[in-house]
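Trying the structure run again after the queue cleared.
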Amino acid sequence: MKKKSKKDLKVKDESRTYYVEGMSIGMCLGMSIGTVVGIFVDNVSICMCFGISIGLCIGMGVGFLIEKDK
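Done. Tokens:
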């Protein structure tokens, strides 16, 4: 088993972001917005899928830009 050096651990600590949190919040918001739009358009299933995918993309982008405090 390869021993990790201090350099590897330092790089791992510096790259902490809110990536997963942003994706989960984006998915929830996208699904709820997609459901509401789908009710008005009378096609809930397709609008909910589009809402989830758009919410995941937006949440991933926002979560990647925000860095966690050390």
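Residues 23-70 form one domain. Worth checking whether this holds up in the mutant runs.
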